[in-house]
């Protein structure tokens, strides 16, 4: 069995295509996802921040100071729109980016005028910083007028706070940051891991089953004095190993790149988040992948050995990806938790458990159900694979 | 020696509608089963080369696959030097060297690694393997390419490695399924001289072929199969006598027999 295993591994390692899918892809995919997202988001924000906005001001005479500030800022460009009040049309035709309408009651003495409402017309569907940027100018006067009003009324600093917010409803979430983010990240993790695991196992599986048939080496192997069960186990281990390696590299790459990029971009919370997930959790995550990989490997090997050629095997395996994705999607649905029946649903339970582990809210007793059901299915499928490999109608189609 | 008595093998037909016109007319198709081999018997003594003849689809490959333990026969017996192949397939496999015309190599392994792998599967020690590969490389003139990756080999090189792989464990009998089909003249010569070498060593050889000149050049015995039935099994001389020395005539006559 080990003989078959080592030979297959040797062959696998000499294949560039496999190495690319097994090692390079998981290593590169994370910096691409993380880095790409960070880069493009930063770019978009920077652009929105530094873009010179064209604006129209209506009733500027009521708030001359504010209007002057807008004119003086080099990040705003005034456009004269006359009496046209079709702001939506103007914004749509790109004549202006926003229109600001000053209220008639505008006055520094807010005790007399009451609340001032400045209206801002803009297209808020796109990423824009209009509100932020205008607000930065407006806030200066708001604070000034507020302070003026308080001093007129003779309100002390403590009273000011109480007046502004008489009762504060203070909220302290028992979910720590880890649980909060774990819910989001932990849901995506199995998605990625499952698919990469499957992909990593898929190529070697095609190669050592259907590939062997296509090259005409299978017959020679079958009449070697080695039990067919051992051949299957050797091949099975190779595929499982390839799948697990891909998964392991993925997890490591994710951890390393997550840390590197969070340091680089000074995202403190990512660093904290990563450091909160213990080694035990990572090990458990990896351990859960083992029976999972075994399931993938037996299914893929059974298909591969049935197929007459590489092409046939690939066309059978392609649609299988859906069966890998669906259980993960189920795990992402609201209301599906690692409790009762769900902890016995294969694949879904592993996806759920990974989420729990990332969140740090794992009920470790559930591991029995998860390992139990997954391992049981893996053993059954492997048994089927061994049986399948002994069928003449499968080997000599 | 090799002795095959009353071998039979049927395959289940999953979808009879998919069969070709010719296959449907074949009398061997009975209901949901295709009786590929119905009754085949033949013998081959030490030092003899037996040529297995028959038209396409006669059941030659199935017979040889049963002989080499790749397939399990439904009935009949196969024995090699007294070992019952059917009850002890793993022991029998150590005694058999098998090569077919369509055999391939593991492309990403070198010629040497290809041979080594099968030698190890046969349970040979590292020392034995090294020695054996050395002598086979000498015999088949493989030194120049043995350590290169086999995916770039020419047909002739591949065939030499395949031969070395088939006999690395010094089998007691050698079975060849159309070993020269699809090969060029040089590669064919390699195979033929290899068979001759085995004959000199006293190793019985069974090979199936469509080339009658190969039969007249190498064979001591001839067996003819048609539609899963043995039509002839005897010495070459007796075979040629069927049609005044013409092998083609003898072949046709033997098939016509019993019709």
Automatic annotation (TrEMBL), chain A:
Keywords: Membrane, Transmembrane, Transmembrane helix. It comes from the Bacteria. It is found in: Membrane. It is a multi-pass membrane protein. The chain crosses the membrane at residues 20-42, 236-259, 279-303, 315-336, 364-389. One of its GO terms (molecular function) is ABC-type transporter activity. GO terms for cellular component: membrane. The keyword Transcription does not apply. The keyword Magnesium does not apply. Residues 16-383 form the ABC-2 type transporter transmembrane domain. PANTHER family: ABC TRANSPORTER PERMEASE (PTHR43471), ABC TRANSPORTER PERMEASE PROTEIN NATB (PTHR43471:SF3). This is ABC-2 type transporter transmembrane domain-containing protein.
TrEMBL record, chain B:
Keywords: ATP-binding, Nodulation, Nucleotide-binding, Transport. GO terms for molecular function: ATP binding; ATP hydrolysis activity. It comes from the Bacteria. The keyword Transferase does not apply. Coiled coil: none annotated. InterPro entries: AAA+_ATPase, ABC_transporter-like_ATP-bd, ABC_transporter_ATP-binding, P-loop_NTPase. Residues 2-252 form the ABC transporter domain. The keyword Transcription does not apply. SMART domains: AAA (SM00382). Transmembrane segments: none annotated. Pfam families: ABC_tran (PF00005). SUPFAM superfamilies: P-loop containing nucleoside triphosphate hydrolases. Belongs to the ABC transporter superfamily. This is Sodium ABC transporter ATP-binding protein. The lineage of its organism: Bacteria, Pseudomonadati, Pseudomonadota, Gammaproteobacteria, Alteromonadales. The gene is natA.
């Amino acid at each position: 069995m080990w003989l078959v295993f080592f030979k297959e591994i040797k062959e696998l390692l000499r294949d560039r295509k496999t190495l690319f899918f097994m090692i390079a892809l998981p290593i590169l995919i994370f910096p691409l996802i993380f880095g790409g997202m960070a880069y493009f988001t930063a770019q978009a924000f920077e652009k929105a921040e530094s873009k010179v906005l064209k604006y129209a001001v209506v009733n500027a005479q009521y708030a001359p100071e504010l209007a002057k500030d807008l004119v003086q800022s080099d990040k705003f460009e005034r456009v004269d729109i006359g009496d046209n009040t079709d702001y939506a049309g103007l914004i749509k035709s790109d004549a202006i980016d926003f229109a600001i309408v000053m209220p008639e009651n505008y006055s520094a003495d807010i005790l007399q005028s009451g609340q001032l409402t400045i209206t801002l017309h803009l297209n808020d569907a796109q990423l824009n910083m209009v509100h932020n940027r205008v607000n930065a100018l407006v806030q200066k006067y708001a604070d000034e007028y507020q302070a003026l009003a308080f001093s007129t009324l003779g309100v002390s600093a403590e009273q000011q706070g109480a007046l502004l917010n008489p009762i504060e409803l203070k909220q302290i979430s028992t979910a720590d940051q880890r649980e909060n983010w774990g819910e989001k990240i932990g849901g995506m993790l199995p998605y990625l891991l499952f698919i990469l695991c499957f992909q990593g196992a898929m190529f070697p599986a095609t190669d050592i089953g259907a590939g062997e048939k296509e090259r005409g080496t299978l017959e020679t192997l079958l009449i070697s004095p080695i039990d067919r069960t051992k051949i299957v186990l050797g091949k099975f281990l190779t595929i499982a190993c390839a799948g697990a390696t891909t998964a392991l590299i993925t997890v490591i790459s994710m951890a390393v790149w997550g840390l590197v990029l969070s340091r680089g971009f000074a995202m403190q919370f990512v660093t904290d988040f990563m450091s909160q997930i213990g080694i035990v959790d990572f090990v458990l995550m990896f351990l859960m992948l083992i029976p999972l990989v075994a399931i993938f490997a037996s299914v893929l090997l059974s298909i591969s050995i049935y197929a007459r050629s590489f092409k046939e095997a690939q066309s059978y395996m392609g649609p299988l990806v859906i069966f890998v994705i669906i259980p993960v999607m189920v795990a992402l649905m609201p209301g599906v938790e690692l409790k009762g029946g769900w902890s016995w649903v294969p694949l879904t339970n592993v996806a759920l458990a990974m989420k729990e582990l990332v969140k740090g809210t794992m009920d470790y007793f559930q591991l029995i159900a998860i390992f139990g059901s997954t391992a049981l299915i893996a053993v059954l499928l492997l048994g089927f694979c061994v049986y399948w490999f002994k069928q003449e109608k499968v080997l000599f189609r | 020696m090799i002795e095959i008595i009353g071998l039979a093998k049927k395959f289940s037909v999953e979808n009879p509608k998919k069969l070709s016109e010719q296959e449907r007319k074949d009398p061997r198709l009975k209901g949901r089963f295709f009786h590929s081999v119905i009754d085949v018997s033949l013998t081959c003594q030490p030092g003899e080369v037996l040529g297995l003849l028959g038209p396409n689809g006669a059941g030659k490959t199935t017979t040889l696959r049963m002989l080499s333990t790749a397939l399990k026969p439904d009935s009949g017996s196969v024995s090699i030097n007294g070992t019952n192949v059917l009850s002890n397939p793993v022991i029998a496999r150590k005694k058999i060297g098998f090569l077919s015309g369509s055999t391939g190599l593991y492309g990403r392994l070198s010629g040497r690694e290809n041979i080594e792998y099968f030698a190890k599967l046969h349970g040979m020690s590292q020392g034995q393997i090294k020695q054996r590969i050395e002598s086979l490389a000498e015999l088949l003139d493989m030194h120049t390419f043995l350590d290169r990756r086999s995916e770039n080999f020419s047909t002739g090189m591949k065939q030499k490695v395949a031969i070395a792989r088939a006999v690395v464990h010094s089998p007691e009998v050698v079975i060849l399924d159309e070993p020269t089909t699809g090969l060029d003249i040089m590669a064919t010569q390699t195979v033929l001289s290899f068979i001759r070498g085995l004959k000199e060593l006293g190793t019985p050889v069974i090979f199936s072929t469509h080339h009658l000149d190969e039969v007249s050049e190498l064979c001591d015995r001839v067996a003819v199969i048609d539609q899963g039935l043995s039509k002839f099994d005897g010495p070459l001389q007796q075979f040629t006598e069927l049609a005044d020395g013409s092998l083609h005539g003898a072949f046709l006559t033997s098939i016509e027999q019993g019709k």
